[in-house]
């Protein structure tokens, strides 16, 4: 009695990279306004297939739903090595163990694993542009402005939950430079224990208003500008901003640079529109004094119509992979590491330093990946070996590690006094060749601070890639470890609280609790 | 909203995770290579040094070509293609020596 034996089960055509909880983009599109308690968390995985990473989740209504998550499994795996211990957070509502996303209706829940690195305050909903891809859905027509006292109350609430210090405060909107009480706000926040204040702007007012540039210059020790800059082509400008506004951008950059205000160019990059201009934006930043940073954000689909193909889009690792070709090898993905505080898929960062020979070199290439990891304490074994052969004294090691963690965190401001010691450590511990920097960093003579500022402005560039999530790429673990929190107001209690940026952008019920929308009054057009 | 059943993000069932039905339909694996190995061993046993000389020479020529084409490292355990070449040439010499004077497994009795 013989029975023919089958061949058994074949292998799947993909490798599971990681199991995740995700959400169904089709259900979301069918009713984007559904109460958060009805949003289903779905089982899923990140699958590596055909050299790409796909997010697949099972929806009871739509079955298996597959979207592109990232373009390079190799780079994604590389990024995942850069994780560090996270910081304690203060939940907004004690005992809030509700699931994601409804938990965020009551602010940061208990099950959050990172504190607030960046607190984002939306000052107002309206804007002097009407960008087709605007995630704030701002337009000249929407006109609600958060009262100054509400914004300050929100900031003070966060300060109380962050043990008396906020690393980064980002003023956003709408267009924050149109906020009628911006001057009063800047005076008030610079008087508080906030390390770094960023203004997220389209630059129109900066390009035109001399008094405004003066205001920024006055606060430039603490205030930096995040300027939208989408590349050199008219096409990019028209696609992302609805008009060719390049000459305003150029004027804004010139004026900020001349005023010595540290500026970061933020580029919204989209496949087929300006994904080939990333190198140009980096070059522009390298060449311009006081442009201390470049942030590249692959366009994401929350907010106004995006026209993104969820199966073929620009992603985090796609941006990283494009760096080498577009910068003539000057910057490669190995020059960046994941930002160690948020989830490694959320942000990558790299520093470029111009040495005394006038060459731009990256921090990772100067220090080496292994030594960097060792200093960050990411590789305990390596560290143990090192301690055995005792090359670096333990005290020095901990100084260097803390400095690096600071440097790789969002809090780091190129102009902040604590940076001097960071540069000192780096310069003293790895033959950077930035001799002048080291000399300046060590000296505490009055007047040297300004020279240090200008030296940093000319010789340091931070490159970051920030891939925000929309419903096609949303996974729960990133929200849980999110460190970019948007100020919101509890719909029932009116308490000030906050929630992960990606969640607030994606889910309409959360978006309505943004401080500008929740506390906003229509503008009267007059300044108080 | 367009008909969601047509959305390209939805993976049709027969394209999704493989199921048992699609599994048994697949042709069983053909272990052809195992037969080839056995045949090569048979030839080696029958032809002795002649087979060794032939295959080693074949390998040497192959690797010499590959190296000229730019292959510096081989997946071969020896790594550097120069070492692989030296090894193969050594094998040819060994085979010729065995044919002429007879030694080792092919001792002329
Ligand atoms: S993206 Fe910025 S500049 Fe454009 S409409 Fe939105 S708020 Fe205004
Ligand atoms: S805002 Fe989004 S992408 Fe950024 S850290 Fe939070 S979850 Fe990650
Ligand atoms: Zn669904
Ligand atoms: Zn952070």
From TrEMBL, chain B:
<keyword id="KW-1133">Transmembrane helix</keyword>
<keyword id="KW-0472">Membrane</keyword>
<protein>
    <submittedName>
        <fullName>Uncharacterized protein</fullName>
    </submittedName>
</protein>
<feature type="transmembrane region" description="Helical">
    <location>
        <begin position="36"/>
        <end position="63"/>
    </location>
</feature>
<keyword id="KW-0812">Transmembrane</keyword>
<feature type="transmembrane region" description="Helical">
    <location>
        <begin position="84"/>
        <end position="106"/>
    </location>
</feature>
<feature type="region of interest" description="Disordered">
    <location>
        <begin position="1"/>
        <end position="25"/>
    </location>
</feature>
